[in-house]
Amino acid sequence: MIIGKSRKELEKMRAAGQLVGRVLQELRRMVEPGVTTLEVDRAAEKMIRDAGALPTFKGYHGFPFSICASVNEQVVHGFPSSYTLKEGDIFSIDIGATLAGFVGDTAITVPVGRVSPELLKLISITEECLERAIEQCREGRHLGDIGWAVQSHAEAQGYSVVREYVGHGIGRKMHEDPQIPNYGTPGKGPKIKKGYVFAVEPMINMGRHETKILKDGWTVVTLDGQPSAHYEHTIAITENGPEVFTRVVEAEQERVEVVGV
Ligand code: MG
User: Fold this and answer.
1) How many domains does the chain have?
2) How far is the CA of 260 from the centre of ligand 1 (A)?
3) Is 59 left (phi over 0), alpha (psi -120 to 50) or beta?
4) Looking at residue 261, what is its pLDDT?
5) What is the whole-number distance in angstroms between the Cα of residue 107 and the centre of ligand 1?
């Protein structure tokens, strides 16, 4: 059952989303060659707890960390570790925080130092896939419209869309109904209604779509060993269209100021 949220609940979800969005911005600034993925995890947990929230991932079905840290051919659910990020890597950070009983969930893929144009393109197309999906998060559209927005854009570039892992409804729990695949048929699937909140998260592979799980039982990698990128936002469906709870506006302003200098 898809749980619609009241205005009050949406306010709480906005606060959770903004918190986790800000933390992710900070983590993104930390990423550079020489940093370990465990250092990023520790910083994430501290920022979340200092803000009076809980790291949603920690302990979720036994997941032992506050972020998922997935490098290069790792798709999602990677363990933070002593792995030291190096120039040319791409690093996907997925993070969730629970504030006042509601969850925000967001992810980004960050280039480490200078990376190849091919990888930069994979990252930017994945981000575009998410933006196109967000445009479909409107009353009266269907879940298939979201999936198609992602799939059509990725496949037009020769990329593929991961099938086994999907987006999801979100609220008091991180994973609520419905499942939101990154593939689909326009006009098909459940109708989208006002008050729904979705975590939409395209996982785009440079090569083939198949994945496998490593022996740790969590880390998902591409079967062909080619790189993968991941973006995610928590999005409310409102009468005024999609509201992206995990989007942080300050970062945009900072970038403008830098250009102004
Ligand atoms: Mg998610």
Assistant:
1) 1
2) 36
3) left
4) 47
5) 8
